């Protein structure tokens, strides 16, 4: 495993574009720190400081930081599809196979790289969240601090699933730009499935339940938007704001299932393809 990971990391670090995108993908989450220190002057009457509003209290901070950080995943997604596009355009894929790397090892090297960067990103977000929480949170009891740390697991699974999808699309079309465009096509397909389900089942709730089994929706539902939850802390009497924001094991299983399928399909494509 380490040999394959080292091989892939060496390729990425020799590519200037990949190095820049990787650097950006790791730097952008630090903007959460800037968000915590943001002060908004409201028409000169008073200054609104987000860090003092309680939104960075434990355990809600795990939800907040993982949601916002997951929005930056597209930068490393470009790296993932570029990994495949460069292999074909530079003919390094064929050379690697000639040098003794099996097709299975080739796909595994990409997958190990995805898992590695997802893990590093998760650790980084975890440390950022912990530091911000310890500074701003009114609750510092150990039990409260770790109460919703499972959002970090959801964040890790979400990144691995999304990048595995990008890997599959890169293998499918061989071109970075087209692979990213297919993400938008898949987004449209999922909404077509939703409306088709609505026509058959007759209500939106059932249609959304069907849509939640689709890959992009399943990844999104791992970490729901935290805005309603923040509003709930400020207006607890508003019953209409209540919603299920928790991380559920079945949602993790669905994304892991899609991840395994994308890796298998990537390997199947490479195995059948004439290089």
From TrEMBL:
Extract one GO cellular component term from the record: plasma membrane
Q: Where are the transmembrane segments?
A: 20-40, 60-84, 111-137, 149-170, 177-198, 252-270
Q: Which domain of life does this protein belong to?
A: Bacteria
**Keywords for the protein's UniProt record, in alphabetical order:** Membrane, Transmembrane, Transmembrane helix
Q: Does the keyword Zinc-finger apply?
A: no
Q: Which GO terms describe its molecular function?
A: ABC-type transporter activity
Pfam entry (one)? ABC2_membrane_2
Q: Which PANTHER family match?
A: INTEGRAL MEMBRANE PROTEIN-RELATED (PTHR37305), MEMBRANE PROTEIN (PTHR37305:SF1)
Its recorded name reads ABC-2 family transporter
């Amino acid at each position: 495993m380490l040999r394959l990971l080292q091989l892939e990391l060496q390729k990425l670090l020799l590519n200037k574009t990949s190095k820049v995108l990787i650097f950006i993908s790791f730097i952008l989450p630090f903007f959460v720190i800037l968000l915590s220190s943001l002060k908004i002057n409201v028409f000169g009457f008073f200054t609104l400081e987000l860090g003092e509003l309680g939104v960075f209290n434990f355990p809600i901070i795990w939800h907040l930081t993982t949601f916002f950080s997951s929005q930056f995943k597209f930068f490393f997604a470009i790296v993932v599809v570029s990994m495949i596009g460069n292999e074909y355009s530079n003919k390094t894929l064929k050379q690697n196979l000639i040098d003794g790397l099996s097709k299975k090892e080739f796909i595994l090297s990409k997958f190990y790289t995805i898992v590695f960067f997802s893990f590093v990103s998760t650790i980084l977000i975890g440390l950022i969240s912990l530091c911000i929480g310890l500074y701003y949170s009114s609750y510092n009891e150990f039990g409260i601090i770790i109460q919703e740390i499972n959002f970090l697991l959801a964040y890790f699974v979400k990144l691995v699933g999304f990048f595995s999808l990008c890997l599959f699309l890169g293998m499918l079309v061989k071109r970075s730009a087209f692979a990213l465009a297919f993400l938008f096509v898949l987004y449209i397909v999922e909404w077509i499935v939703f409306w088709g389900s609505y026509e058959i089942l007759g209500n939106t709730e059932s249609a959304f339940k069907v849509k939640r089994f689709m890959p992009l929706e399943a990844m999104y539902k791992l970490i729901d938007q935290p805005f309603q939850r923040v509003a709930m802390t400020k207006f607890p009497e508003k019953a209409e704001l209540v919603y299920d924001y928790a991380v559920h094991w079945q949602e993790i299983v669905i994304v892991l299932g899609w991840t395994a399928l994308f890796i298998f399909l990537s390997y199947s494509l490479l195995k059948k393809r004439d290089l």
